[in-house]
Design goal:
Blueprint lengths: L14 H11 L25
């Protein structure tokens, strides 16, 4: 089985939910969220938005 990785944006109005919808529409069974840029040493605290 051939497997591919996709970069899906969480930017915009729908955020993570939009990325989930896009992954589902592409028939993906999994996706990964990066909490910060891997190119940056400086980090911000993660916050939970409700």
């Amino acid at each position: 089985m051939v497997r591919y990785g996709f970069h899906l944006s969480i930017a915009g109005k729908k955020g993570v939910a939009g990325a989930v919808e896009e992954a589902m529409s592409l028939g993906l069974s999994a996706f990964q969220i990066f909490a910060k840029s891997p190119r940056s040493w400086k980090t911000r605290a993660l916050s939970l938005r409700r």
